[in-house]
Structures are given as structure tokens and as C-alpha cells.
Specification:
Blueprint lengths: L3 E5 L4 H15 L21 E5 L17 E4 L15 H20 L3 E4 L1 H9 L3 E3 L4 E10 L1 H5 L9 E8 L2 E4 L5 E5 L7 E4 L3 E4 L7 H10 L11 H9 L7 H11 L2
Parallel strand pairs: 1-2, 1-3, 3-4, 4-11
Antiparallel strand pairs: 5-8, 6-7, 6-9, 9-10, 10-11
Helix pairs in contact: 1-5, 5-6
Length: 260
């Protein structure tokens, strides 16, 4: 069985490790604690989840590269694609440079891909949509609504039209490219999920994020400009007051649909 690949932009160790564990848990695949993009993960050596750190690890997308994986997931983090190029760090510029060939290959092959938060900005911009700071949302619980297309999409099988998720972002999709399909929305953010082709997805909310993970990210990113650090305890309480159970279904469905 081929492993899934997690592309990670997180340099903050606690958040990066929590993200890896969450994707592994909710995809239902193992991870052996080592990042090895050249081999399988998991104790049986036959599948699992491999992490590759964008901006740190080398990414060489050549012929047959996609054949190594069952699917590719892209996590979130502190990078913002709509930032002025002159303000972006070397790590961010390298990550964006390396993501270009990945997205080229994924879209051309209609290969299984799911990008979370940062993924909606990168895929949206790659496909010609408008990503800007017009529709930010505070860190914490979000009320998400599926479109009719989302209700009919196999990635959202078992998810009700209205559900709670965790998120928090400075930028968002303001305008989808014409060939994309909007799958979910919210009152504050017009595009919470979309699809290109049949198998290439992105969500603004975090399908891997549970309450423990939310608390970890509030603590980790308290000084990154997402919120006033004095509000951290209030944000943790707000997250604890909401039952978030449905977004993880996307990851279970993604793995079930594409494991090979």
C-alpha cells in the first residue's frame, strides 16, 4: 500500500507535531515518527503517512513522483500567500517555489489532493482565483454550510449541511476561478471549500483540528497576529464550548476513497 504525503509548512515544533499526529489519526493511517519522502511509513512498511517540510526539505517533482503516494495533503501554518513578496521570508518563498510543481502535477493528473487553510490560498491562487484579506475569521469555532454540490460530493459523505469546524485565518478566497466548484461557505467567508476536477480539494477550515489541537495552536501562534494574546484564554473557552466532530470525516473519506 502506498503512503499518503503530508506537506507541512510549520516551523513551530509543537504545532507541527500535533498536525502530523492529527492527520495520521483522522486519515486512519500510521506514522513511524520519521520523515522519509523516499520510503513508506507505518510499522508494517506498507503505507501510512510521510511528512515533507516545505521550505526545509528538498522537493523534486519528476516523472513518476505522484506514483509514490496514495494522495497528498497540505497543512496550514503562518504563511500567507497574499502577503507582499518583499515581506515574505526565505522559507516562505522556498515553500511557494516548491509547491508550484507539486500543484502543477496534481492538477494535471487530477491526483487526490486536500489542502487545509494555507492550501485553499495556494491552490486558489495557482488556479487563477483571487486570494486576499477581505474575509478573515477569528481563531476558534466556525459555522460552515455545505452547498448543494458539497452535499453531493463524496468527500463530504456523512457530513450534514450545517456543521461546526475549527479555523482562523488572515486571508481567504474572495473569488473562485470559473472552473472550480464551491462546496462550502460561511457567513464571514464565502469559500470554505472548493474542488478542481474530480479529486483536487481545498478547505478554509481545518479538517484535522480537534479541541486539543486548537489549544496547541492558540498557545503556539498567540504572537503571530491572529489575535490579541490577552484573548488566548477566551478563545480556548470558546473552542471548548462547541462540539466539533464532522470535519474529520473528510479525512476518513479521503483515505477510504484514495488508499491504494
Amino acid at each position: 500500500m502506498r503512503p499518503f504525503l503530508l506537506l507541512s509548512i510549520r516551523a513551530e515544533q509543537a504545532a507541527a507535531d500535533d498536525e502530523l499526529a492529527a492527520f495520521s489519526r483522522f486519515l486512519g493511517v500510521g506514522h513511524d515518527g520519521h520523515d522519509d519522502p523516499h520510503g513508506p511509513a507505518g510499522p508494517d512498511g506498507s503505507g501510512g503517512l510521510v511528512r515533507l517540510r516545505l521550505g526545509v526539505d528538498d522537493v523534486e517533482v519528476g516523472p513518476g513522483w505522484l506514483d509514490r503516494w496514495s494522495g497528498v495533503v497540505l497543512g496550514g501554518g503562518a504563511f500567507t500567500v497574499s502577503d507582499d513578496e518583499a515581506t515574505k521570508s526565505r522559507a516562505q518563498l522556498r515553500a511557494e517555489r516548491d509547491l508550484g510543481p507539486v500543484l502543477d502535477a496534481v492538477v494535471e493528473a487530477d491526483f487526490p489532493f486536500l489542502g487545509a487553510c494555507y492550501g485553499i490560498g495556494t491552490l486558489g491562487r495557482h488556479q487563477g482565483g483571487l486570494v486576499d484579506r477581505s474575509h478573515p475569521e477569528p481563531v476558534g469555532p466556525l459555522a460552515v454550510t455545505l452547498t448543494d454540490a458539497g452535499l453531493a460530493d463524496p468527500l463530504f459523505e456523512g457530513v450534514p449541511r450545517d456543521f461546526a469546524a475549527y479555523g482562523g485565518h488572515k486571508e481567504a478566497m474572495t473569488r473562485l476561478p470559473g472552473h472550480a466548484v464551491r462546496l462550502a461557505t460561511s457567513a464571514a467567508c464565502p469559500v470554505q471549500a472548493f474542488r478542481v476536477g474530480r479529486n483536487v480539494y481545498a478547505t478554509q477550515f481545518h479538517p484535522e483540528l480537534d479541541l486539543v489541537g486548537l489549544h496547541t495552536r492558540i498557545d503556539t501562534y498567540a504572537t503571530f497576529g491572529y489575535f490579541d494574546p490577552a484573548e488566548a484564554a477566551t478563545l480556548r473557552d470558546a473552542g471548548s464550548a462547541v462540539d466539533v466532530r464532522h470535519p474529520m470525516t473528510l479525512l476518513r473519506n479521503f483515505a477510504a476513497l484514495h488508499r491504494r
